[in-house]
Amino acid sequence: MPISNVTFKTLNGSLGGVNPSADGIAGLILSHAATSELSLNTPKAIFGVKDAEALKLSGFALEEIKDFYSKAGDGQEVWIMIVSDASLLADICNEGNDIAKKLIVNSGGRVRFWGANIEKPDSYSADQTEGIDKDVYNAMTNAQTLCDSLAAKYIPTRCILPGREWDGDVAKLRDLKQGTNNRVQISLHGVNGGKEARVGFLLGLYSSIAVQRNIGRVASGDLGINEAYLTDGASTAESIVGKADTIHDKGYVLPIKRFGKAGYFYNDDPTATSNADDYSSFARGRVIDKVERTAYTAFLDFVNDDYAVDSKGNITIGELKRLQGKIDDAVNTTMGAANEISGFQSFVDPAQDVLGTGQTVVKLNTQPRAYHKNIVVEIGFAKTLE
Question: What is the pLDDT of residues 29-57, one digit of tens each?
Fold first, then answer.
């Protein structure tokens, strides 16, 4: 034992610094006039509010970026693009217009999820036949098509849209759970007196949490905001307590109050599809997207590689194990160890006509983590406790 003395152990992590995550790379398309530092429809990666200010961004766009970094923390990569305030969300999300697509592709496929938010001029007249601006619903279907197309090109991504211009009528809101747009989420979280949603804030929150985490997780703490409005600019989380369940059941994200808890929380992380859909949760979508990205990286080196087959022309056990081992190691090391999934298993059927088809089928089974959605407590008196 050494001579008695005073020793020191340097601690780390107490200042709450952010460790930027590739899983949290977002894309954000905002309305703003062209500046001397940033042209319209030009993708640009930034890493903090100061970067946005250096690009001469101000007003609505800058506030959205500040909202993003209030949750994500400085240092987190986000790809931005500015567009004219005359732009329609549907046009931005249309694959053929190469706007949102350009942002994602130019990022090198680094954008995991993205959103668009346009502050419309006072002269704009929204079609509120279904409660919010019809342009949002049109954008939703276009965004789903775009995301599906990109996923087929090994760039899985998901979209968050602003449920802007809500007229305050819950009954008129379209039931998103009747749709099939499982890569799209619509938020009704707004600001006092405004008609736009806080898309930057929501993107920043997703950037700050692990892929399997639900944004409505109560244990993560409240949203850290002093007030919570919806996109009619007047309704608050307090005033819609009696309507929140109906809005939730229709598949929208909204800020709510939870009795016994201070602050505000999100209700859940729904996507615009049936609850029977495996990807009716944004978190579940992020998990499977990460599995896809991991699998692509793991298997890319196998493409056009040669190997011996057995006497029946099937994949040998050795080659089968090499394939399975590569993906099992990759997923379990990155996602299993981080508790992003419950379990993972790959399977390659050895009886495949690989010589005739040139195709090798690998099945990946991902077991997700479960969520305490509804906790039913049966309470009563008992004569005995045996």
Answer: 999 999 999 999 999 999 999 999 999 99
Average model confidence (pLDDT) across the chain: 94
18, pLDDT greater than 60: no
SS (H, E, C) the chain: CCCCCCCCCCCCCCCCCCCCCHHHCEEEEEECCCCCCCCCCCCEEECCHHHHHHCCCCHHHHHHHHHHHHHHCCCCCEEEEEECCCCCHHHHHCHHHCCHHHHHHHCCCCCCEEEEECCCCCCCCCCCCECECHHHHHHHHHHHHHHHHHHCCCCCCEEEEECCCCCCCCCCCCCHHHCEECCEEEECEECCCCCCECHHHHHHHHHHCCCCCCCCCHHHCCCCCCCCEECCCCCECCCCCCCHHHHHHCCCECEECCCCCCCCEECCCECEECCCCCCCEHHHHHHHHHHHHHHHHHHHCCCCCCCCECCCCCECHHHHHHHHHHHHHHHHHHHHCCCCCCEEEEEECCCCCHHHHCCCCEEEEEECCCCCCCCCCCCCCCCCCC
Q: Please state the pTM of the whole predicted model.
A: 0.92
Kindly state whether residue 144 falls inside one of the protein's structural domains: yes
Q: Residues 179-223: pLDDT tens digits?
A: 999 999 999 999 999 999 999 999 999 999 999 999 999 999 999
- The verdict on residue 54 lying in a domain is yes
Identify the domain boundary among 284, 312, 339: 284
Q: Do 279 and 308 have their domain in common?
A: no
Are 217 and 263 contained in the same domain? Answer: yes
Same domain, 374 and 308: yes
Same domain for 217 and 336, yes or no, is no
Whether 292 is covered by a domain: the verdict is no
Domain count, the chain: 2
Residue-wise pLDDT tens digits, 318-353: 999 999 999 999 999 999 999 999 999 999 998 888
Enclosing domain of residue 264? 22-284
